[in-house]
């Protein structure tokens, strides 16, 4: 931990995951390279963690003793709340937040929200969509229902995505680029790095075409799809995203 090398043992992996969920470090601040190589697939049950290769035998033995076995998941990571419950957060469905998630004060994760390990929110934030591994959302950002943020664990992606302050991902939208502060992606629009985007001026005239990656991390942008032409457009965002303070201040 002192040199922050890739984890070499299972206990070291869990220590680093606990550091994230206890808010001692933020996502991407510690080295988790190769973590999957040191974590076995485990059946997480009401009788504790059980090696997945042994679970059938355990279930049989428990049933013979008249005991029930409830399996929360069969995964390399347990749900966070089995081990860590950060103060001042709400999690409607605890199975959708993995150990190693970072949830800042005032964060609300609704039933369809999901937060992977080494990912999370600065707080306060509303999470009703998926925050993939490596993604960090700054305060005041709202991840709408069914929204998706690309991660780096599969598909060959290498760029770590971040979202700035006061952003809104509309319901069922998605991004494969980083957003700066005060950005909005309209509902149902998925922007990948290679998406061709038409920059539109204040008179709604097209200025030029760019790939979305060229707009990564820029502030005050509104992404939308023209409902007539189908072209993805980007214009200056003049709106302000504000979370409902009543939903977060009393977490």
Give a structural overview.
The radius of gyration is 20 Å and the shape is elongated. It contains two helices and 22 strands. The protein has a domain at 78-247: 3 Solenoid (UDP N-Acetylglucosamine Acyltransferase, domain 1), CATH 2.160.10.10. The strands form four sheets. A ten-stranded mixed β-sheet has the order 4-6-9-12-15-17-21-22-19-20, with no helix packed on it. It has a five-stranded parallel β-sheet with strand order 7-10-13-16-18, with no helix packed on it. The protein has helices spanning 10-21, 55-64, and strands spanning 42-45, 48-51, 71-75, 90-91, 101-103, 108-109, 114-115, 119-121, 126-127, 130-131, 136-137, 142-143, 148-149, 162-163, 168-169, 174-175, 184-185, 190-191, 196-200, 206-211, 221-225, 232-236. By secondary structure, it is mainly β.
Would you spell out the secondary-structure blueprint of this structure?
Elements: H1 10-21, E1 42-45, E2 48-51, H2 55-64, E3 71-75, E4 90-91, E5 101-103, E6 108-109, E7 114-115, E8 119-121, E9 126-127, E10 130-131, E11 136-137, E12 142-143, E13 148-149, E14 162-163, E15 168-169, E16 174-175, E17 184-185, E18 190-191, E19 196-200, E20 206-211, E21 221-225, E22 232-236
């Amino acid at each position: 931990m002192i040199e922050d090398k890739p984890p070499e043992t299972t206990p070291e992996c869990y220590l680093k995951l606990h550091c994230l969920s206890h808010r001692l470090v933020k996502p991407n601040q510690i080295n988790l390279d190769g973590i999957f190589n040191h974590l076995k697939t485990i059946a997480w049950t009401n009788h504790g963690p059980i090696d997945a290769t042994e679970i059938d035998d355990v279930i049989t033995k428990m049933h013979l003793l008249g005991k029930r076995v409830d399996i929360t998941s069969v995964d390399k990571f347990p749900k966070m709340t089995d081990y860590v419950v950060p103060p001042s957060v709400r999690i409607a469905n605890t199975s959708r937040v993995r150990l190693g998630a970072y949830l800042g004060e005032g964060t609300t994760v609704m039933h369809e929200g999901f937060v992977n390990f080494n990912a999370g929110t600065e707080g306060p934030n509303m999470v009703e969509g998926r925050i993939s591994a490596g993604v960090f959302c700054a305060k005041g950002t709202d991840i709408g229902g069914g929204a998706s943020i690309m991660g780096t664990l599969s598909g060959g992606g290498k760029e770590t995505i971040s979202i700035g302050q006061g952003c809104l991902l509309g319901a069922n939208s998605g991004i494969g680029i980083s957003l700066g502060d005060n950005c909005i992606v309209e509902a149902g629009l998925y922007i990948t790095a290679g998406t061709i985007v038409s920059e539109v001026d204040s008179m709604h005239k097209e200025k030029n075409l760019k790939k979305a990656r060229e707009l990564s991390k820029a502030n005050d942008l509104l992404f939308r799809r023209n409902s007539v032409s189908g072209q993805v457009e980007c214009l200056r965002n003049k709106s302000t995203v504000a979370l409902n303070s009543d939903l977060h201040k009393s977490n």
